[in-house]
């Protein structure tokens, strides 16, 4: 469809948002690898604007009707091309007819429910798009898309307990670690400490990793992809019994997303803190703990 | 292998330096173009070179210093917010994004320093954060250097009293807390170093570790420089915390170094006021720690402090410095069972030195120290260890030097007991030291008690101690020793005759044990010392007469008699004889005839029985004659007996010339040129005639045996005797007799067979000249001489 449009554009379609000048723009990575600035919305907002259709000089556009759709789509990469629309809203803009000259149509979707955030993962993508379709009988419809981004803010959780745990290998290594919270927002700082109760191995260093686990599909078709987003050295050298090593990890430098749990039964994104101790023979001892990441409204 | 290791290390160091330089270049570029992001990136990479584990501390230091210089530039950049446009608070967060801990913390410390300077946050908070975060580096070497860097950059930013960072809740407590914490952590890392690496390179590791000690010690130095650390804070916080660390680290090297450090960096008055705490830590140290040096250093410092200004002395008393030190030493010695004896004694020497300098008036302290030492030494017979011996000598010499008065040392009851533990040789040396000290200071030892103690001290010189290998004695040394003892005897003196007698008795008791080799040296001074006393008594005789005074000359003479007798029993008759004569003379002066007679008898007995050598006989007889001549105490009968004996022995000498001389000497026995001296001209003449006969006989013997008569010396000598008595008015000596003698000599001289001797010729000539002179002088004497024709 694009190819035809690009090859022989019958008309130019442009989509503008009514608050386009003031609305925050954020970068969005597109399929071709480029990033484009797109407007940012959140759930329950009104999405309004104008569609302007301008036929190519001296041509007329015959159509069977013009509509605009707001789509929320989940795309699995292993099932490429198949979109699953979890949200679909339509506004008819025009009855069948002909367009000879530039024509604009206002549109508005008010208080749109957009429960899921835009997400670009390894195997899955969740996106929001405005789709304008000029239906034509035989020549094929003319379609234009406008991506936009959705982010949803969560208030600070009322219950946010610390993670505290004692783990070890009998007669070898015994540690107690503590992360100050179990839920962190994206710009948060992880504060904590590791207390060594017993050390019988020669530890070389200790890292704290942030791992993202993206699982897609369900049942037998579940795909799990794990990425290490951060590798943060906490300790250099071998501690002795009784040492307490501080943790202070700023999350802001890392490209995290909020935790997504079971998005429309299609996928989940979870975050883990992985504490890794490496001994002198490069053996790794680790303990992984899930933490919830949420998006806190920018105060600025 | 080893050389390879070193080469490798050089290579690694070179690589590290290259890495730093490379990144520094880009960092400078970033700094010049105010590019914060790039600056952080390259500085972080630069600091990553410090993550190496392959360098020895020495080489690592090299690398560290290079990184350090670069960080100074970076810090300048951080300070200038205009350049990078990032607030210091944000910067403080930004540098913490670094993934590797070591670069992250170096950068954090650097920014932290700027942060404090900006005063946007309380200094204490930043400091606390930094010192806490540095816990992340547990590698000893890297951790030490990192914390050292922290100490370095924070040093001028501590909220000390009077510092610009003080106030608003930032107090000196925070500064102290910070340094203490950093110190504790550094020490832990430092101590841990020894457990790194294989056992076989342990020595090398220890050496390397030692090189790093100043990094740790610097913290203590910083603490001592904090103005706000007053005595109270030092006592309540700083010292207990530091000591806690020292004790708990249980590491020999660290404990020794840090104790020494504490002693050296903090002021003396603090030490004085906190002695108990500081000393309390000593017994808790590892048994291998060289506590003695530590304590010695402390005592040395304190004694210097005491010496520096007398005003501080009351403080020492107030805090009972001695008692505390003393008990601490006791505890340390008890705690360190393996400490060699020399160590313990060294400690006591230090304590003694301290005591002498700080409490010179407290002899009981000194004695206490010695007592403790005795206790330690008891159970062991003699010291074998030469070092320990040396220390004991030092211990014993210290009071002598200080008091320059042996009498003081004599009151120390433990002094001789310590000496008992010395081996014989050293014991003697020590005894010599004591004697020399007495000599040098001209100390009078004035009571029998002290003398008793003194001789107990120097008994090594006085008698053979058990097991002395006699053959090892060097004769010269021995003589010198004994001469010293002899000199010492003269130093024992008291004005009170009774006490003096007691002294003499005491000395006698001791030296009599000395055996045959020592007595010849020791008895004479004793005798003379006693005689001195006799003479003193003789002067006071009138005053004390009639009283029941034990110190009478008689009693002394009895004592002397016994004493000298012991000398004659061992083969030293000549000496005994001389001493008898001395005593006789003294008895004479005291007017005690029987005693004098007894002494003479003894002298004669010795002469008869013991003096066999002819030369010795000559000397002895002349001494007897001389002494006898002086005697005026004898009645006629006694005198006759003695003079008769003397003349008799004179005539029985072996050689004729000796006989002759002795006989004419005897002539003086009958003519004492005193007011009421004996003047028996006849017997004088008899003697002279007898001697003349002997001279003749001698001459004839010479003629027979050698074919030539001897020189006329004897005749001239007799002529002189004639002249003497002639002048003194002996009626038996006539001018005719003199004339005859002169003629005789002349004849002898003209005799063909006579050998000429220029000396005797000259003697004769000058005798004649004398006669001529007297004649010409005129007067009574001239007239007397007139008849003599020369």
UniProtKB/TrEMBL annotation, chain A:
Localization of this protein: Cytoplasm; Endosome membrane; Golgi apparatus, trans-Golgi network membrane; Prevacuolar compartment membrane
Keywords annotated in UniProt: Cytoplasm, Golgi apparatus, Membrane, Protein transport, Transport
GO biological process: intracellular protein transport
Protein's membrane topology: Peripheral membrane protein
Record has rRNA processing as a keyword: no
Stored Pfam families: Vps26
A single GO cellular-component term on record: endosome membrane
Chain coiled-coil ranges: none
Broad class of where this protein is predominantly found: cytoplasm
Biological role stated in the UniProt entry: Plays a role in vesicular protein sorting. Component of the membrane-associated retromer complex which is essential in endosome-to-Golgi retrograde transport. The VPS29-VPS26-VPS35 subcomplex may be involved in recycling of specific cargos from endosome to the plasma membrane.
Record family assignment: Belongs to the VPS26 family.
Subunit structure: Component of the retromer complex which consists of VPS29 (MAG1), VPS26 (VPS26A or VPS26B), VPS35 (VPS35A or VPS35B or VPS35C), VPS5/17 (SNX1 or SNX2A or SNX2B). Component of a retromer subcomplex consisting of VPS29 (MAG1), VPS26 (VPS26A or VPS26B), VPS35 (VPS35A or VPS35B or VPS35C).
Protein name in the entry: Vacuolar protein sorting 26
The species this protein was found in: Escallonia herrerae
TrEMBL record, chain B:
Keyword ATP-binding: no
Gene Ontology annotations for the cellular component aspect, listed alphabetically: cytosol; endosome membrane; Golgi apparatus; late endosome; retromer, cargo-selective complex
The keyword Iron is assigned to this record: no
InterPro entries noted in UniProt: ARM-type_fold, Vps35, Vps35_C
Topology of this chain in the membrane: Peripheral membrane protein
GO biological process: intracellular protein transport; retrograde transport, endosome to Golgi
Compartmental location: Cytoplasm; Endosome membrane; Golgi apparatus, trans-Golgi network membrane; Prevacuolar compartment membrane
Keywords: Cytoplasm, Endosome, Golgi apparatus, Membrane, Protein transport, Transport
Gene3D superfamilies membership: Vacuolar protein sorting-associated protein 35, helical subcomplex Vps35-C (1.25.40.660)
Described purpose of this protein according to its UniProt entry: Plays a role in vesicular protein sorting.
Family to which this protein belongs: Belongs to the VPS35 family.
Cross-referenced PANTHER family: VACUOLAR PROTEIN SORTING-ASSOCIATED PROTEIN 35B (PTHR11099:SF6), VACUOLAR SORTING PROTEIN 35 (PTHR11099)
Protein name: Vacuolar protein sorting-associated protein 35
Organism: Escallonia herrerae
Lineage: Eukaryota, Viridiplantae, Streptophyta, Embryophyta, Tracheophyta
